[in-house]
Amino acid sequence: MASFLIAAQTLVAAPATGAARSLSPGWLRVEGELIAEVGEGDPPGAPDLRLEGGMLTPGLVDLQVNGFFGHDLADAGTAGWHTVAGRLPETGVTAFLPTFITAPLPALAEALRRTARLLPHLPPGARVLGVHLEGPFLSERRCGAHNPAHLTDPTPQALAPLLETGLVKLVTLAPERPGALAAVRTLAERGVLVSVGHSDATAEQVARAADAGARKVTHLFNAQSGVHHRRPGVAAQALADPRLTAGLILDLHHVAPVAARLAFAAAPGRIVLVTDAVSAAGMPPGRYELGGEPIELPAAGPPLRADGTIAGSALRLDAAVGNAIALGIDPAAAVDAATRLPADLIGRRDLGRIAPGAAADLTWLVPDGTGGLRARRTWVAGRQVWDAGSGNPENGNAQGPSPSTERTRP
């Protein structure tokens, strides 16, 4: 069983329960696929790898990835899935929920069946934690980039074929649709996380959804009723209701800096960073697809539909963590929002933390020279799957890192 010791100038650790904290310096020892020990100060022996600068964090967990590197996961083939899962560690992501947006129900059911056939054959890379269905049970008034022609009510007949594979772990829906509260209860009883999104609901309707078992809100402030002081909507309830955790696309285009600060201040420990990345992410400006329809990635800003509607993002999750820190969010809280909190939301308490017994999913985030953060090295289950020094996502070996010292600007 492989064993190696890493010492870091800064290590963001999280216990089995409770918020993360920064250890400066800190160290950890990996045994096989798990973290065996974590400590503060100097390591108990000569480390196999010493990381100078940046911070060693749990592997990042993204609950909303429509696509990346030129591939839309809803209709990607084997090569597309291999590319996305194999290369997401370049962004620090070690686990994710591929996200399928609104489409006809038979097309979504087939996409789920195709995904179930593909998953056992993926190469080493980011873990696929299930599938996030963002639609088709959304509001026509807040459909955003979703095709309104395919929206429908979440009846038992509509849900049944989508749940057959067991892959669905998260469903975004509008609680004001007929039958939605019954659907929330059904999904929650089956262990599916329900998120309120693309919704024109009142705060009271969102509260009733939380009563029925909803526990999340999809991309806070975007495609939802807001925080009007006399007509509070989805965003207001998300910030006020301790039962709800809100996803936040922190590319500084979807949400203004002051609104992002408001979210972290109003709902500490209840904000999770997501990318909502689409096929254009990681690619040069040009034309791509989302849900079978064209989108355009400009030279600056998020991808757009032809009518100017924002269509997902080209955000990296490591960059989102850096953006949060640059806005004044405590670094440990920013890391928590992209690791422990999303992992806990979908019931994966073995992920998203640096603690004894947790999966050895790790990433080393370093300054990129512009004030942002980038993943320099990434490990999944104790195996190094990304090393920016080589540019090879399969660099390293299954036995962990070779003895060395890495330095970068603090």
From TrEMBL:
<feature type="binding site">
    <location>
        <position position="219"/>
    </location>
    <ligand>
        <name>Zn(2+)</name>
    </ligand>
</feature>
<dbReference type="InterPro" id="IPR011059">
    <property type="entry name" value="Metal-dep_hydrolase_composite"/>
</dbReference>
<feature type="binding site">
    <location>
        <position position="134"/>
    </location>
    <ligand>
        <name>Zn(2+)</name>
    </ligand>
</feature>
<dbReference type="GO" id="GO:0008448">
    <property type="term" value="F:N-acetylglucosamine-6-phosphate deacetylase activity"/>
</dbReference>
<keyword id="KW-0479">Metal-binding</keyword>
<feature type="binding site">
    <location>
        <begin position="222"/>
        <end position="223"/>
    </location>
    <ligand>
        <name>substrate</name>
    </ligand>
</feature>
<dbReference type="InterPro" id="IPR006680">
    <property type="entry name" value="Amidohydro-rel"/>
</dbReference>
<feature type="binding site">
    <location>
        <begin position="310"/>
        <end position="312"/>
    </location>
    <ligand>
        <name>substrate</name>
    </ligand>
</feature>
<feature type="compositionally biased region" description="Polar residues">
    <location>
        <begin position="392"/>
        <end position="410"/>
    </location>
</feature>
<dbReference type="GO" id="GO:0006046">
    <property type="term" value="P:N-acetylglucosamine catabolic process"/>
</dbReference>
<dbReference type="InterPro" id="IPR032466">
    <property type="entry name" value="Metal_Hydrolase"/>
</dbReference>
<protein>
    <submittedName>
        <fullName>N-acetylglucosamine-6-phosphate deacetylase</fullName>
        <ecNumber>3.5.1.25</ecNumber>
    </submittedName>
</protein>
<dbReference type="Pfam" id="PF01979">
    <property type="entry name" value="Amidohydro_1"/>
</dbReference>
<dbReference type="InterPro" id="IPR003764">
    <property type="entry name" value="GlcNAc_6-P_deAcase"/>
</dbReference>
<keyword id="KW-0119">Carbohydrate metabolism</keyword>
<feature type="binding site">
    <location>
        <position position="198"/>
    </location>
    <ligand>
        <name>Zn(2+)</name>
    </ligand>
</feature>
<feature type="active site" description="Proton donor/acceptor">
    <location>
        <position position="276"/>
    </location>
</feature>
<feature type="binding site">
    <location>
        <position position="254"/>
    </location>
    <ligand>
        <name>substrate</name>
    </ligand>
</feature>
<feature type="binding site">
    <location>
        <position position="145"/>
    </location>
    <ligand>
        <name>substrate</name>
    </ligand>
</feature>
<feature type="binding site">
    <location>
        <position position="230"/>
    </location>
    <ligand>
        <name>substrate</name>
    </ligand>
</feature>
<keyword id="KW-0378">Hydrolase</keyword>
<feature type="domain" description="Amidohydrolase-related">
    <location>
        <begin position="55"/>
        <end position="383"/>
    </location>
</feature>
<dbReference type="GO" id="GO:0046872">
    <property type="term" value="F:metal ion binding"/>
</dbReference>
<feature type="region of interest" description="Disordered">
    <location>
        <begin position="386"/>
        <end position="410"/>
    </location>
</feature>
<comment type="similarity">
    <text>Belongs to the metallo-dependent hydrolases superfamily. NagA family.</text>
</comment>
